[in-house]
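hi! just following up on the protien thing from before. the input was this:
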Amino acid sequence: MFKGIGVPVVTDYELWKNNPEKVFGLSAEFTEENPNTTIALTKALIRAAIWLDENDNANRGEAVEILSRSEYVGADQAVIANSMTGTFEYEKGDIREVPDFNVFFRYNATYPFYSDAIWYLSQMRRWGQIAEAKSDEWFFDTAKSVYRPDIYLQAARMLVDEDLANEADFPWDSDGFKAPTPAADIIDGIGYDGRTPNAYLESLPIGLKGTQTVSGSEILN
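and the predicted 3d structure came back as:
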């Protein structure tokens, strides 16, 4: 849009309100060999997320300036600010308030919910990256082998004890699953519940779902 080449039609926030997006990942080997570094990195990420969202995004302008530097993103400040400061310009002059376009800490955005991982896996199944149908338990077990709320909460507890975060801002008693996303919050009008991945896949009109055998041959439907 800023170069006059094209315009955004819709934002991902409008596709799915508060959808899962960016992931910071470490290998299991790294976390096992470097537990202190893993905790320190997690603490730093949480603190950065708190800073970016606090006081109604008051620090976003400073963040934009930092990110625009050549040693980081290196893009023009106006381009970065378009998605960081609570407004979004779809085309020249069409500026709208979208305060939650980028959320870093609100709504437990940094917490590694199993249901987010399961959604990614469901899309991998839906579009053929996972070739065979899987049980709900497979989705649960795979998510739990990758997403580590135990590490996250250990880091969060340390931040609270150091007076660098608020106790009430973390989902200490979560079972790892978000409340189901209502259909109204997703552009296709189909709700999502991470506790029932196969039922979710079956509800989608397009994509791979289960398996079916016809005349001795297995076909995907």
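The CA atoms of residues 136 and 196 lie 7 Å apart.
The longest helix spans residues 35-57.
cheers
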